[in-house]
Amino acid sequence: MNQYLQNIMNIIQQDENLSAEQKEAIAKSIKEAEKELEITAFKLDRTEKVKRTTAILLEETIQELEQKRKAVEESNDALQKSLEELKATQQQLIQSEKMASLGELTAGIAHEIQNPLNFVNNFSEVSTELVDEMNDEITKGNLDDAKEIANDLKQNLEKINHHGKRAGDIVKGMLQHSRTSSGQKEPTDINALCDEYLRLAYHGLRAKDKSFNADFKTEFDESIPNINVVPQDIGRVILNLINNAFYAVDERKKLNESGYEPTVIVSTKKEGNNVLISVKDNGTGIPQNIVDKIFQPFFTTKPTGSGTGLGLSLSYDIVKAHGGELKVGHIEIENTSDSHVSRGITFIIQLPISE
Ligand SMILES: Nc1ncnc2c1ncn2[C@@H]1O[C@H](COP(=O)(O)OP(=O)(O)OP(=O)(O)O)[C@@H](O)[C@H]1O
Ligand SMILES: [Mg+2]
Questions:
Q1: Number of alpha carbons in the 13 Å side-chain half-sphere of residue 158
Q2: Confidence band, pLDDT 50/70/90 cuts, at residue 340
Q3: Which residue from 97, 171, 294 has its CB within 8 A of the most atoms of ligand 1, so it is best to mutate?
Q4: Looking at the 3D structure of the chain, how many domains does it have?
Q5: Residues with CB under 6 A from ligand 1
Q6: 96 and 213 housed in the same domain
Q7: 116 Cβ contact partners less than 8 Å away, ≥ 6 residues apart
Q8: Which of 149, 152, 224 is nearest to 191 (CA)?
């Protein structure tokens, strides 16, 4: 029994003024009081325990939150860094494209690959940490939290895939760039070359997409002499212009305008000391506000995976390396409600007959 209650009990037992019944009644009350005290002490103890467990759980939750915050912060930093690098590299690339040196551009592209690689590395690192966290949550039975982490993981994997594909596209473009330097110049029949690549482009597209169809015509000046060029390189320029033209007419065809006939015309002409090769289409055209950008490396309006945006910049470099010019010809503006949108475009390759 509680020491203080025992003392009271002893004093009462020795008091001669109290009767035996009174003493018994008091003793009973004291025992009841002791029981109450014990219950209260037990409850207090339990409350204390609950408080301690809650504190531990709270501490754990705070730690988890802190970990998640760090992960988010890290991927934000990585994103920000890559974005800045991307901007800086793009700037450099545009500069070196102006300098028009194939070697410089190739080096620039290799540098460009670093950006998607950084994304891939950073996101896979963060994802590894997330897997550990998810496992912890599963062990603890917190399935809702685990699901949330799984969603984050999926998003990261999608990003990794996206940037991996981009790196792949860039490598493809880079190989094209580097291959150009190996060829030898030789006297070349430009009309035959145009004809060959026009067919190549048309049948290449038909092989990829059975539903693709467009009219193509040639208007060759038979009086042009053979000129000294690297045939694979000039062929690649013509191929890119024709591919762009076919793409543009196919896009316009999808608009289902009545009476629309997709047409691409390749023509040649002698003008002074130059041979002009023009590729004309009646496709979607190029809005005035982007026409200045189309020669920039990586500029594309095609959906991801369809184009790298290197076609025209590569072509520009090749033509420059031949002492020629690659220009956008006259833009035909139809009476559309949007006067800024031209319909159809002509690209002109100008090559010197004798250097
Ligand atoms: N004939 C055209 N008609 C309309 N737009 C064109 C035409 N040619 C080029 N463009 C525009 O210029 C952009 C850049 O062309 P470029 O050839 O450099 O790259 P791409 O065709 O997008 O990709 P890639 O050639 O690497 O497959 C195109 O995405 C498109 O917006
Ligand atoms: Mg192209």
A1: 6
A2: very low
A3: 294
A4: 2
A5: 240, 244-245, 248, 281, 283-286, 294, 299-302, 307-313, 345
A6: no
A7: 163, 164, 166, 167, 170
A8: 224
Asked whether residue 167 is domain-assigned, the answer is: yes
pLDDT at 199: 79
CATH code for the domain in which residue 308 is found: 3.30.565.10
Closest CA to 219 of 177, 254, 193, 191: 191
Ligand 2 center from residue 3 Cα (angstroms)? 97
What is the rounded radius of gyration, in angstroms, for the C-alpha atoms of the chain?
A: 40
Of 25 and 92, the structure prediction assigns the larger pLDDT to 25
> Can you tell me the mean pLDDT for 320-346?
71
pLDDT band for position 105 (cuts 50, 70, 90): very low
Question: Distance between CA atoms of 285 and 282, rounded to whole angstroms?
Answer: 7
Whole-angstrom Cα distance, residue 12 to residue 168? Answer: 97
For residues 345 and 287, is the Cβ–Cβ distance under 8 A? no
State whether 281 and 171 are in the same domain.
Answer: no
Mean pLDDT computed over 128-132: 95
State which residues form the domain around 157: 55-182
What is the chain's mean pLDDT, rounded? Answer: 86
Nearest to 237, CA basis, from 200, 205, 284: 200
The residues placing their C-beta within 5 Å of ligand 2, an ion, are 240, 244, 311
Domain identity same for 176 and 192:
no
Which residue in this structure is represented by tokens 């700037």? 91
Alpha-carbon span 177 to 72, nearest angstrom: 38
Nearest to 225 by CA among 275, 267, 184: 275
Question: Is 197 inside a domain boundary?
Answer: yes
